[in-house]
Amino acid sequence: MRAFKFELTLEKVLNTGAETFPSQKIYYRDLREYTFSEFREKALALANSLRKLGVKRGDRVAVIDWDTDVYLLSYYGVPLSGGVLHTVNIRYPPELILKTMLHAEDRWIIVRDEFLPLLEKGKDYLKSVGLIAYSESKETPKSPLNPTNFWELLNEEPLNSPDVSENDMATIFYTSGTTGEPKGVWFTHKQLIYHAEAVALAGTRPPLNLNNNDVYMILVPMFHVHSWGHPYIFMMTGSAYVLPGRYDPKAELELIGKYNVTYSAMVPTILYMILSHEEVGKYVNHLKKWKVVIGGSALPEGLANTAKQMGITVIGGYGLSETCPVLTLGTYNAQVINEEEKVRFAEQITAGTPLPFVELKIVNSSMEPEKTGEIGEIVVRAPWTATEYFKDPEKTERLWAGGWLHTGDLGFLDKYGYLHIVDREKDAIKSGGEFIPSILLESAISSHPSVGQVAVIGKKDEKWGERPVAFIVPKGSISKEDLRNFLQNLAEQGKIQKWWIPDDFIFVQSLPLTSTNKIDKKELRKMTS
């Protein structure tokens, strides 16, 4: 008799959660809730309904929604139907949303009713696409596109033993386009599970120490790189899960208080908006139990210190769309855990150390490894990295030149083995033939107590080629001279180079953001050109 071939598919994740933690809860704001057991039944009912509607193996199914229970059900129901979940970036301009959907060759769309006007405008391009829509009232949304009511699909019998393979494409999405046109990346069932397992394991280490007593509320949009894997991780770990819907700092604080949220992940700008909200003081006792992973952009030292002063445990992490995304986390390794608190904190707010199974090195332009402390490009390998850009062999070849995935990020490894990101290659400021690392300079400026947010870009200069300019969102009274004196003092302490000090400081009320809430340096460059 031949041994049973065990397929590592998302059904196994559902089963792990529902059978080990059947009564654990999922909450969508204060509107709906599910036990893990109920959630599995509804996700498999959705999978069965999608098959009966006509979703075939490999069909791309787009989802256009906020971070809701509908989205979470789709994270499982679509891949287990044999379809491929296309998480559409709802913050793209309408024409770019349509462009990515056409490039992905979407066959079906699951959409929240408030986004229906967007699809109605592009109906001429979507004639052969099936439409499923939902409203909070659970009535069928009215639209000339005649959608199927999503809620009715959950009344079907759960799908028994989904006929999918661990190597089937499960998800596809498009990069945020910060370095040009968005590029499609896709991942298999097995890759998603490998990634979730590694992130979950790393999360058990101090100072996070995550376990099934934690309550997750992830503030990474579900359209953005699988919400960093958390829609799968929480089912494996048995942690309660809170879905915030549309993001709003006040609502997020209320959810933290209502559900005793203990763990979140987000980009720095989201944390800044929460901590600077006028009502944050009401939740100080809840925030003392809060553990936060920051990724997407480097964690500025000033923001990290603000969080620490409020009793929040905050650590850094690193990854990118092409890597599913997480590669490193700022948890403690054996070298750091016994160091004094000052050293531990300094290391936990770096990009961290590689997850299990991640191979990472710093290389020069000839792909030769750099020594400890020397800056070079970060290249990686892991079981969950994207194998290609969808329908783009030319960019795929550049991505995997030399057999390593090229991140396009510059960084170095310190004596403890922690990764420090110093810049994107495209953002590095070249002044007088030498690089000024904008991320390190931003972190230094952020440590001034009157700086709320900061972004540094390079401005063309006849003598030096480029010189740094800093955009500042102040949170107190501050002048350009104050900042110059502050940075001069840091230079005298050896924390930065004197010639890094920006030529100009521009005070603004807010910084432009990309579709994934990162600071948009392309827009800032336009302001100085």
From the structure above, extract its key features.
529 residues, alpha/beta, Rossmann fold, GMP Synthetase, Chain A, domain 3, 3 domains, seven-stranded mixed β-sheet, 25 strands, 24% strand, globular
Brief summary:
Helices cover 31% and strands 24% of the residues.
3D architecture notes:
This protein has 529 residues and is of the alpha/beta class. It has three domains: 166 residues, ANL, N-terminal domain (Rossmann fold), CATH 3.40.50.12780; 234 residues, Rossmann fold (3-Layer(aba) Sandwich), CATH 3.40.50; 100 residues, GMP Synthetase, Chain A, domain 3 (2-Layer Sandwich). Helices cover 31% and strands 24% of the residues. It contains 17 helices and 25 strands. Helix 1 packs antiparallel against helix 2 and helix 2 packs across helix 3. 50% of the residues are buried. The mean pLDDT is 95.
Structural category: alpha/beta
CATH topology of the largest domain: Rossmann fold
CATH architecture of the largest domain: 3-Layer(aba) Sandwich
The geometry reads as globular
* Estimated radius of gyration: 23 Å
Please report the number of helical segments: 17
Mean of pLDDT: 95
The rounded distance between the terminal residues' Cα atoms is: 72 Å
Q: Approximately what portion of the residues adopt beta-strand conformation?
A: 15-25%
Number of strand elements: 25
CATH class category name of the largest domain = Alpha Beta
Q: In total, how many domains does the architecture comprise?
A: 3
Main beta sheet strand tally, sense and closure: 7 strands, mixed
CATH superfamily of the largest domain: ANL, N-terminal domain
Which strand order does the major sheet show?
Answer: 7-6-5-3-4-8-9
Q: What fraction, in percent, of the residue positions are helical?
A: 25-40%
Low-confidence runs: none
